[in-house]
Amino acid sequence: MSSIVVSDSSPHVETPPTASVSAIPNAETQTPATGGTSGGVNGIMWRWKRDDMLKKVSLALRGGAMVFSLISFIAMASNKYGDSKDFDRYNEYRYLVAIGILSTLYTAVQVFRQIRELSTGKLLINPRSGDIIDFFGDQIMAYLLISSSSSAIPLTNSMRIGADNIFTDTSSAAITMSFFAFLCLAVSALISGYKLSVQPYL
């Protein structure tokens, strides 16, 4: 009797290798990029500090212009010694007094507004309107101050040739104070122009 041999002819199926869990990137374990938020906060803080510094410098400049304008006005207005030594006999000196009064009033209003805004933290007028007023106001007043000083200088120099006395000395002091006021407002106008150019006004 012959024996029948049964062989296992079923194909052998290989099991694919198990994928490593560590090889799959996990979005939850990824560290977000740092620096974006902190950089934005630092930029905002720097802009606040810059604006605060510019406000204080502008306040100091306008305060200086107010003091110099007031001294110039008082010195020239009191420059009366009779006859030809009287300021109101000369158009140039009357012009200097008029601009000194105008500059004193303008800078006094600006100083009051800025002190009020810094102390209360509230703006009295719209920021863009305020910057426009500051820029053009400082420029116009600076021009008037240098104009009045320039018109009074030749007259004073001609008087000094004939006689150098208390009248000409007082006139020179008033002109000098007016020029210092011009310098303060000229620098303040530059700051106002810078603020006007960088503010987003959103």
Automatic annotation (TrEMBL):
According to the UniProt entry, which residue ranges have a biased composition of type Polar residues? 1-35
Gene Ontology terms: cellular component: plasma membrane
Q: Any transmembrane segments, and where?
A: 59-78, 93-112, 173-194
Keyword Cell membrane set for record: yes
Map out region (Disordered) in residue numbers. 1-38
User: Entry's InterPro entries?
Assistant: CASP_dom
Q: Which residues form the Casparian strip membrane protein domain?
A: 53-184
Pfam families in alphabetical order: CASP_dom (PF04535)
Which compartments is it annotated to reside in?
Cell membrane
| UniProt keyword terms in alphabetical order | Cell membrane, Membrane, Transmembrane, Transmembrane helix
What topology does it adopt in the membrane? Multi-pass membrane protein
Q: Which domain of life is it from?
A: Eukaryota
* UniProt subunit comment: Homodimer and heterodimers.
Family label: Belongs to the Casparian strip membrane proteins (CASP) family.
The protein, known as: CASP-like protein
Q: Which organism is it from?
A: Lupinus luteus (European yellow lupine)
